[in-house]
Write a structure and sequence with these properties.
The protein has about 450 residues and is mainly α. Helices cover about 75% and strands about 0% of the residues. Helix 6 runs antiparallel to helix 15.
Length: about 450
């Protein structure tokens, strides 16, 4: 396979800015906004304050769980699709209805509150599920397009390219609330971000690299693609793939627990540590750049699997240290603690972002890229609603539970019991990293190394 040139790789990767931007707004900020400005007043009117966290985080849990099922079918359908634009690119046009649903997720609180609960909850769930489901189909084909266009020895650099552009969208997620500070609704944000998401994916469709139609014709001549159930069975009985699926579920669960709880955790610790997100942002940005460079070099010398295993083991060892952040020491000491532990955890997360797609690309056979991608995305994405469900449920249990559940409390304050709740979540994340490491040890294939 011929290497894709850097300009074409950039033109393909630029779509990740919009993908990541919209996705992170939905995942990180919208549930918090709904919790404070929609569900809190709505539930208070009904005397249901005790389920506030469960309801708020279910805005992630339910759409993610339902839309994950879309992955299983979308991959196989993509592999069987034949158009003059190719197998993957036509599905990128689903950004149009997906962006429309995303924009309407920002309806002003006064409109949503006037609807009452559960009507406002159901409307937001429908919009959220439609947005994420359409995004899942689009993203499955987007990743499969990378697999189609890149040879094995270019896949780490392709994966890094995806994630560097995705990082721009992630960074913008935390900048945009400052731009719209004092906003009365989220509609301005969803309109802007939804438009960026739409325009960048249309750019990829019209101006990005094209699929090799001759290669697709050769696949058709070689053998007929089997039906869905046979393709599904063949995929999950593939030795390397089934173990990689198991590893993927647990490493996604681990980092999803961390990312889901991150802003809430930081806000909770601000009671005891005089730190803002921006105090650690620049340090983490430096770590991110170094991390991508380091993993690129290490994977060429040692291979993707060995390098990834080291990172997961570090995550297993370091994750529990977050339990002890903000307990004792001077304010400067506590900030240093926070930066060191967050930097190491980010280093582990970067390994996941660098290698998860690159290893998948190596494992997937050339005629079933999207089928494998769809099944893998389904299994890995399930970790996200499991994580958000655990966060909401465990927080509500320890906030509203009897005193015996609040025995591990370092401080008193607005959120009694949170220290134990966070400790439990972080220990689950640590164990998940270790289980993922064990499954990844079972994945074995010959890699092309550049020594």
């Amino acid at each position: 396979m011929i290497l894709i040139n850097k300009l074409e790789l950039i033109k393909l990767s630029v779509g990740m800015i919009g993908n990541s931007f919209a996705y992170m707004i939905f995942y990180f900020l919208l549930p918090v906004f709904y919790k404070e400005y929609v569900f809190k007043p709505s539930l208070s009117l009904l005397g249901l304050d005790n389920i506030l966290n469960t309801v708020s985080f279910s805005m992630i849990t339910i759409p993610f769980a339902i839309s994950a099922l879309v992955y299983i079918f979308s991959g196989h359908i993509s592999d069987k699709t034949r158009t003059r634009f190719g197998r993957r690119r036509p599905y990128l046009l689903l950004v149009i209805p997906s962006a429309a649903c995303f924009i309407f997720l920002g309806l002003p609180p006064n409109i949503l509150i006037s609807m009452g609960f559960p009507q406002n909850y159901i409307l937001l769930l429908i919009l959220g599920t439609l947005y994420v489901s359409l995004y899942r189909i689009l993203y499955c084909n987007y990743i499969a397009l990378y697999v189609d266009l890149t040879p094995p020895n270019q896949r780490v650099s392709a994966s890094i390219s995806i994630n560097l552009f995705g990082m721009i969208g992630t960074i913008a997620t935390f900048i945009i609330p400052l731009v719209f500070e004092g906003m009365s609704s989220f509609l301005e944000i969803t309109a802007l971000v939804g438009s960026i998401y739409l325009l960048l994916m249309l750019f990829v469709f019209f101006l990005g690299p094209k699929e090799d139609l001759e290669k697709i014709n050769k696949i058709d001549l070689k053998e007929k693609i089997p039906g869905f159930f046979k393709s599904f069975k063949d995929s999950i009985t593939d030795y390397n793939f089934k173990y990689y699926l198991s590893a993927s579920f647990f490493f996604v669960l681990a980092y999803s627990l961390m990312t889901t709880v991150f802003m809430d955790f930081l806000k909770f610790k601000q009671t005891y540590i005089p730190v803002e997100f921006w105090n650690i942002f620049l340090v983490l940005l430096i770590v991110a750049v170094f991390g991508f460079w380091f993993y690129s070099k290490m994977s060429k010398k040692r291979g993707k699997i060995p390098t990834f295993k080291i990172a997961l083991y570090i995550g297993f060892l370091v994750q529990p240290f977050m339990i002890f952040l903000g307990i004792a020491g001077s304010p400067l000491s506590l900030i240093i603690q926070l930066i060191i532990v967050f930097a190491i955890l980010l280093f582990v997360l970067l390994a996941v972002l660098t290698f998860q797609n690159a290893i998948l690309m190596d494992i997937a056979p050339p005629d079933k890229e999207a089928t494998y991608s769809g099944i893998w995305l389904f299994v890995s994405v399930i970790g996200m609603p499991v994580a958000s469900g655990l966060v909401g449920l465990i927080n509500d249990v320890f906030i509203n539970g009897p005193p015996i559940l609040n025995f591990w409390i370092y401080r008193t304050g607005e959120y009694p019991g949170h220290d134990f709740a966070y400790a439990l979540l972080l220990l689950i994340a640590s164990i998940s990293y270790f289980i993922s490491y064990l499954f990844l040890r079972k994945v074995k294939y010959k890699e092309e190394l550049n020594k």
